[in-house]
Amino acid sequence: MHSIQRRWAVVKGRIKFFAALFRRLHSGRKRKLHIRNLFHVSAT
């Protein structure tokens, strides 16, 4: 039971994180480009 609750909490946290990310992406194209550049830098 505890492991399931912990796993669910992690899933909820990820959903919140991605929701915030998508909101930022939709807020503006300039920010989208900025985020894309950040991913590029972190990937290399």
Structure description:
This protein is an all-alpha fold and 44 residues long. It contains 2 helices and no strands. The protein is elongated, with a radius of gyration of 15 Å.
Topology:
Elements: H1 2-27, H2 29-43
Question: Describe the biggest sheet?
Answer: none
Q: What proportion strand?
A: under 5%
Which of globular, elongated, flat, extended, rod-shaped describes the shape? elongated
Q: How far apart lie the N and C ends?
A: 40 Å
Uncertain runs with pLDDT below 50, 5 residues or more? none
Q: Which bin fits the share of residues in helices? A: over 70%
Tags for this model:
about 45 residues, mainly alpha, 2 helices, elongated
Q: What's the quick description here?
A:
The protein is 93% helix and 0% strand.
